[in-house]
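CORE FACILITY INTAKE
Project code: CF-77B
Contact: R.S. (postdoc)
Sample description: multi-component assembly, two entities in total
Requested service: structural model of the whole complex
Turnaround: standard
Below are the sequence entries exactly as provided by the requester. Do not edit them.
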Amino acid sequence: MPTTRRQFLSLAGGVTAAGTIPIVTLRPLRATPAMLNTAIRNVVGEAPIRTGKVKVDIPPLVENGNTVPMTVTVASPMTADDHVKSIHVFNEKNPQPNIANFYLGPSSGRAQVATRIRLADTQKVVAIARLSDDTFWQVAVDVVVTLAACTEEMN
Amino acid sequence: MAALINVPAKARRGDVIEIRTLTSHIMETGFRHTADGKLVPRDIITSFTCRYNGTEIFRADLFPAIAANPYLSFFAVAKESGRFEFEWIGDNGYSSTASASITVE
């Protein structure tokens, strides 16, 4: 029996679908909000996270996602009894949800850290601080990115 | 590798000083492809440590989301004259160190 056009097309479509799906599942191009939550829970555990104390300075509109200046400040006296132990920064849509972990202590004097980060898309940046009494405080900032980073082709 | 360190040469005891570091590194994310479709392997700095007269005062875990040529700024209380030592550790056995001295009055 000669192959009809319809049979041929359905076969070709099936091959294409089978060929593309594994690639997509093997390497997700971006982190999902679920991955963001998992990454946060890996650091925080089951402890509650309160909003406040943490401030993120980042341009609200970014033209080049390859280098975005970011400053994280935590309101803390930084004494031996009351200081910031660590600051964890996460993103929502880069290929992976972590940006950086910073570990400080009373000898830091001021709970402020600055660096330059990459952002692959318009998304949310989350900063979480762990204080010396093991409470967690967070802030989320929305950033609009016009030129994405991380996944572009090399020339 | 080349690193730029900015630490004040002098400070009064108890002052909070800013330390800024910049080091040259490609920070290849491991998510990019060449024109012929091959994945470029990850090559990043994963850890940065600052020690003040031997005591660790600041440490950072870095991920591919840190821009190329990692810049870090942080603070420290000037307690005594001495040395700040900086260390960057990364993929493929990468390791780099730098230091700066400070006089505390």
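Facility notes:
- Chain A has a mean pLDDT of 85.
- Helices of chain A lie at 5-26, 33-44.
Invoice: internal transfer
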